[in-house]
Amino acid sequence: MVGIHAPGAPVARLAYVGLHALQHRGQESAGIAATDGARLTLHKRLGLVSQVFDEETLTRLERDGSEGAARAAIGHTRYSTTGSNSLPNVQPVYASSDLGELMLGHNGNLTNATWLRDALAEQGVEFVTASDTEVLAKLIAHAPGRTWAQRVEQAFHRATGAFTFTMLTERALVAARDPVGFRPLALGRLPAANGHPAGWAVASESAALDAMGADFVRDVEAGEVLTIDEEGVHSHRPQIPGRRERLCVFEFVYLARPDSVIGGRLLYEARMAMGRRLALEHPADADLVIPVPDSAIPAAIGYAEQSGLPYREGLIKNRYVGRTFIQPQQRSRDQAVQMKFNPLPEVLAGKRVVVVDDSIVRGTTTAPIVAMLRRAGAREVHVRIHSPQMRYPCYFGVDTGRRQELIAATRTLEEIRQRIGADSLGYLSEEGLLAAVAREADGERRHCTACFDGRYPVDVPLDVDKFALERG
Q1: What gap in Å lies between CA 62 and CA 65, rounded to an integer?
Q2: 53-63 residue pLDDT tens
Q3: Rounded-to-integer distance, Cα 300 and Cα 284, Å
Q4: pLDDT over threshold 80, residue 139
Q5: Cis, bond preceding 294 (omega within 30 deg of 0)
Q6: More confident residue, 377 or 65
Q7: Phi first, then psi: what are they for 447, rounded to 5°?
Q8: What mean pLDDT, rounded, does the chain reach?
Q9: pLDDT value of position 213
Q10: Where are the beta strands (DSSP E) in 152-196?
Q11: 3/151 Cα distance (integer angstroms)
Q12: Share of the chain above pLDDT 90, in %
């Protein structure tokens, strides 16, 4: 998710570049909306960023306005956590109100989306998608308030769950994080262009700001609303009683890029620290350490350094196969694992191998990896996971599935080890994980760890139903 306000700059192309840097966060579809100050233009399709956009579509987004060149844009890549992977659910989504039109792209999940949709429908609001993003967009569009920031504040009081978003109106870019701050959002400064003053950009991760040529300024705070227009950045911080910041710790484990900075912490360093802690908590009598690429590479390096074992690449990744965790169907994940990795028998043959991975969710992708290593000649396979056991479903933007689908919720550690076929298995403790991601000056708990310990920061449904809005 990205947003740019930079008159004089090619804002749609900048959004396109930013979305490429965030392709890892969603691989199902992509969209960009732009405004020239008077009219909103949108292009969105199913597929990867490179499949959805070409020179013709980007030119149209830049120039297809009544007032001339586009001056602001937002972009989104989708990883479906509410609603199916279908064209109507692709973001950004549209809504209109007495203040004007808007396009909105959203990262997270509304845990009370069904209730909000029913309440809005009773007011005569119509819906055309099965996405909680449209619920959020129309909640804002129909909220009371003389400004968009005031309407977003009203939405903050009614919506629960995770809803970091970018919103484009005819004349402004609005960006916000929900009061709990489950999902990250970074603010950056773009250089001046074509005689216009410097512009502004926001992105789900700072790595996307780097790709767009923006200098990182700061994280958008939990519960903060930014309105960016010709006069600059305006910050609004509504007071929402009882809400405390809880940034998703799984961003540090897996979701975000290692070259991103979140909460003042470079993720590469945080993951190396996870690996070092993992080696202390679960040492192994082995010959070498290998990662499951790519997200576990820094942790494997940290494990090797701490344990004194040599670090090697034992699995080669096919860079043209996407992330298996965020595939929408289990069958897609299973097929992708077979295509994604190739073992190196020359490295593995006869060796006792420590293989470091970021997580085990359902357990269905780890077993084939262990079997692959054994076929390549590994004498022993010791699996080490640089996060705790995932026992509870996520309701805030990660499609983990129902609790009964999570292997750690229904099986003991020994049963999981047998299921995946490893000689030994060790998970990083929750204390070790939090110590690895914390800044040195941090003494306060700032992260959501509900998927590990069931301590949800806000009320959640009794069960996950990804398609509840479609059935409704």
Answers
A1: 8
A2: 999 999 999 98
A3: 13
A4: yes
A5: yes
A6: 377
A7: -125, 145
A8: 92
A9: 97
A10: 164-169, 173-176, 186-190
A11: 19
A12: 80
Contact at 8 Å (CB) between 398 and 368?
A: no
How far apart are alpha carbons 426 and 414 in whole angstroms? 10
Question: Per CATH, the architecture of 2-246 is what?
Answer: 4-Layer Sandwich (3.60)
Place of tokens 């903060």: 224
Q: Which of 106, 76, 103, 86 is nearest to 46 (CA)?
A: 86
Looking at residue 464, its pLDDT comes to: 64
Residue that has been written with the tokens 């026992």 in this structure: 391
pLDDT digits (tens, 9 = 90+) for 389-437: 999 999 998 888 889 999 999 999 999 999 999 999 999 999 999 999 9
Q: What is the CATH number of domain 266-453?
A: 3.40.50.2020
| Radius of gyration of the chain, Cα coordinates, nearest whole angstrom | 22
Per-residue CA distances from 37 to 66, 105, 124, 150 (Å)? 9, 19, 29, 21
To which H or E segment does residue 368 belong? helix 366-375
Pick from 121, 18, 129: which is nearest to 76 by CA? 18
Query: Which residue do the tokens 């959640």 mark?
Result: 460
Domain map of the chain by residue range? 2-246, 266-453
Contacts of 264 (CB under 8 A, 6+ apart): 219, 439
pLDDT at 207: 97
Q: Find how far residue 90's CA is from the centre of its chain.
A: 16
Side chain identity, residue 186: A
| CA dihedral over 217, 222, 224, 225, signed as positive or negative | positive
Whole-number Cα distances in Å, 303 to 254, 285, 310, 420, 422: 17, 13, 10, 21, 18
CA distances for 251 relative to 155, 205, 291, 305, angstroms: 25, 10, 18, 24
Rounded to 5°, angle at Cα 143 from 204 and 465: 60
DSSP 443: -
CA distance 407 to 463: 17
| Amino acid at site 41 | T
Measured in whole angstroms, how far is the alpha carbon of residue 395 from the centre of its chain? 13
Backbone angles phi, psi at 306, to 5 degrees: -70, -40
Range of weakest confidence among 48-57, 85-94, 170-179, 329-338: 329-338
Peptide bond into 92 cis (omega under 30): yes
